[in-house]
Amino acid sequence: MSMRSDVGITMTKYASDRFNVEIAAADPETQSAVADLMASAGFTSENKSGDLLFIWEDVCWDPDCFVHRFVCNMADNGHEAEVCLIRIGEDLDEMIDIIGEMDANPFEMGVVRKLVYKA
Predict the structure, then answer these.
(1) Which of 19, 24, 68, 116 is the most buried (most CB within 10 A)?
(2) CB atoms < 10 A from the CB of 56, how many?
């Protein structure tokens, strides 16, 4: 059984342009897989500056997929302010993965923790 996650990705216009260049250079199978993944996002948004937001809920997320590797590479190569990926696993004891920072964060994507109870 595959683990399910909620995943959000934000990227600046600069990161989005680089993403499109790297996809164009990829093999057709990878291009198709990326197109399918991006199209499956439950919510997407683009602001006036060209920054993008993608949200997936209950998705089988593969950390070896092109999209995940792209965000990691951007963050690892000094462009952490251009991207942010947040992955929340299905189990409460799973860690929350946050990759990149996207300093401006125009979509205010983040994680909210709260205690829920019944009195």
Answers:
(1) 19
(2) 20
Torsions phi, psi of 36, nearest 5? -65, -45
Return the higher-pLDDT residue of 31 and 119.
31
**What is the pLDDT at residue 2?**
58
Q: DSSP E strands: which ranges in 38-89?
A: 43-46, 52-59, 83-89
3-state secondary structure of 17: helix
* Order of all β-strands in the sheet with 83-89: 43-46, 52-59, 5-11, 83-89, 96-100
Report angle CA 56, 89, 64 to the nearest 5 degrees. 70
Give the predicted TM-score (pTM) of the model.
0.88
At residue 13 the predicted structure's pLDDT band, cuts being 50, 70 and 90, is very high
* Nearest residue to 19 via CA among 40, 34, 36, 3: 34
Mean pLDDT of all residues belonging to the chain: 89
Task: Tokens 């860690």: give the residue.
Answer: 95
Tokens of 81: 């302010």
